[in-house]
Amino acid sequence: MKKKGISLHYIILSLILQVFGISAPVMAISDAQKEVISTYCGAIHDNLRDLQRSDSRMMMDIGHHYEVILANFITPLNLRLVENNLPDTDLINNQNIFSQTRIDFVASYVDYQKSLEELLAFDCKKEPEEFYEKLEGVREKRKIVADGTTKLGRLAKEQVKLVKVLEAKL
Known about the structure:
Layout: H1 2-19, H2 31-39, H3 41-83, H4 89-121, H5 128-169
Helix pairs in contact: 3-4, 3-5, 4-5
């Protein structure tokens, strides 16, 4: 019963600290985990560099595709509709949301990459607990990037649906 109370207090404290922009400390890792991190520090860094390279290529490709969708499909269609006095508020709203989400995606990716760079510069042999804490932060930022790609994918699908509705009207 006492463990649940401590866990609940830790969660509440973490949430309060997050609201005020203060990162909460990660629960202490075991001595065995510290030893593994210290022992395999070089391999961990190698894997993180591989992840960084693959993420960089993938995010550049994805970012380019989102830019193409916006610049070559969404925006020209809305401009053409406005020029023909047939503006569609749903399509315009989707364009605005897509555009802002793409900007947010790029910003979150840059933030993630900076955090990953900082993590790669950190000595996990000497300070495995702090390294693990920073790793958890990088994981959270990577999740935000992934959430952005999911949202942009949904908005692109929504665009297709809205175009089909418009097509049926015309």
